[in-house]
Design goal:
463 residues, alpha/beta, Aspartate Aminotransferase, domain 1, Aspartate Aminotransferase, domain 2, five-stranded mixed β-sheet, 17 helices, 40% helix
């Protein structure tokens, strides 16, 4: 390979066939909009947002094949052919025997929590996720974080910060006994840790531990393809493996999964519960009829199931996932070069600003990550979201704020939506905000909903 070849620019492996025009706003308009939204970026109107990095959930651009599949929707109430296409895709790429479709991932979380958790149970997992933990708590369980300590340090360079600490599993087992641990909640590409992967070797060790003690493993498979990409790049022995084969092996080490297809599968709505056990499947099939819809559509239209089935196959394409993660790394590296504090190594779906280092003058009880997200919108029209004390919520026993070690602002990149130029604009805005960070003030929460407060809480600027 010549030096000239090495210097060639990289480009997205797709063409743009349709565009959506963006609304350009003034700083004065954005200041008014964020005040009306109570300084919560979730409460902004999308029409007032220039570059929307709030989430990658349901915000990706579907492919021509997916849109063509939408035209093949069989909207029969029962036995839609698209359900069987979805079932076949899940079996082929993930390997789970049974599929229960749901409207999105939290529908699957609700069902599996209701089936497996009993009052007083403890559910260990590699860092909490908001909706997952809430469903576990509503079912009577208590989440226990068993992720490795390195995951709570944004500067630690561990390549697999999503790994589970077996010693922490042992400690929980000694404390409560195996009969009080219904399953281990294992996420791939752990969101709240910064999109950090779990290694196959660690998952094998967790699987061995779980089998020894008769405990199930339920996999949050939302970003399993991104995790597989990091395994291929970082874990010895997988250099020549395909993304599809790594995904299949990861899933084979678990007993079931909850899936929000709005991420890896790149659809606007949809999800499923995948399981291997006959009895769990039978119970899930009964519950989905009560809470979602018939077991062959579960809250999705036939056309949506078709799009999910196609999206699953596209998600394991190497060039696609390389481009997806590559765009995130592109933004992250620009921020690192400018000295902006972020979670390292750069994750798979988002760049996470480290709010504690970004705003050392704002204490955590004044919601520094929320303040950064609000001010970034005001300055540049870029919408991000908080992943810190607001997202962590309150301890249900004491009523006090939970104070996670990670206080983060998530810049989440939708798949196949924005160009590198949008990433350049975002980077420039964040860098400028960081250079003027001493002007950012903390916030006071003035409205707090009962559940998942980060979605609807309202704030005001501290005096």
């Amino acid at each position: 390979m010549t030096d000239k070849t090495k210097r060639r620019s990289w480009a997205e492996p797709f063409k743009i066939k349709m565009v959506e025009l963006l609304k350009m706003t003034t700083k004065e308009e954005r200041l008014r909009a964020i005040k009306e939204a109570g300084y919560n970026t979730f409460l902004l109107r999308s029409d007032d947002v220039y570059i929307d990095l709030l989430t990658d959930s349901g915000t990706s651009a579907m492919s021509d094949r997916q849109w063509a599949g939408m035209m093949l929707g069989d909207e029969a109430y029962a036995g839609s052919r698209n359900f069987y296409h979805l079932e076949e895709a899940v079996g082929r790429y993930y390997g789970y025997r049974y599929v229960v479709p749901t409207h999105q991932g939290r529908g699957a979380e609700h069902i599996i929590s209701r089936i497996l958790i009993r009052q007083g149970d403890f559910v260990p997992g590699n860092m909490y996720f908001t909706t997952t933990r809430l469903h576990q708590e509503l079912a009577g369980g208590t989440f226990v974080d068993v992720i490795i300590d390195e995951a709570h340090d944004p500067t630690n360079q561990h390549l697999f910060k999503g790994n589970i600490d077996i010693a922490k599993l042992d400690a929980l087992l000694d404390k409560v006994g195996s009969e009080r641990i219904p399953y281990i909640s294992v996420a791939t590409a752990v969101n709240m840790a910064g999109g950090q992967p779990i290694s196959v070797q660690n998952l094998r060790e967790v699987n061995e531990w779980a089998q020894k003690h008769g405990i199930l493993i339920i996999h949050d498979a939302t970003r399993v393809a991104e995790n597989a990409y990091f395994v291929k790049r970082r874990e010895p022995g997988f250099e020549n493996a395909s993304i599809a084969s790594i995904v299949k092996e990861i899933c084979s080490l678990t007993d079931g999964c909850t899936m929000s297809a709005k991420k890896d599968a790149m659809v606007n709505i949809g999800g499923f519960l995948g399981v291997n056990d006959d009895e769990i499947y039978d119970e899930a099939r009964n519950m989905v009829v009560v809470y979602e819809g018939l077991h062959t559509y579960g809250g999705m239209a036939g056309r949506d199931m078709e799009a999910v089935a196609i999206g699953i196959s596209e998600s394991v394409d190497y060039e696609h996932i390389k481009a997806r993660v590559g765009q995130v790394e592109y933004l992250g590296n620009k921020l690192l070069e400018a000295g902006v504090p972020i979670v390292e190594p750069i994750g798979g779906h988002a760049v996470f600003l480290d709010a504690k280092r970004f705003l050392p003058h704002v204490p955590q009880d004044q919601f520094p990550a929320q303040a950064i997200a609000a001010q970034l919108y005001v300055e540049a029209g870029v919408r991000s979201m908080e992943r810190g004390v607001v997202s962590a919520g309150r301890n249900p026993e004491t009523g006090d704020h939970r104070y996670p070690k990670l206080e983060l602002v998530r810049l989440t990149i939708p798949r196949r939506v924005y160009t590198q130029a949008h990433m350049d604009v975002t980077a420039e805005a964040v860098i400028e905000l960081y250079e003027n960070r001493e002007k950012i003030k903390g916030l006071r929460m003035i409205y707090e909903p009962k559940y998942l407060r980060f979605f609807q809480a309202r704030f005001e600027v501290m005096g």
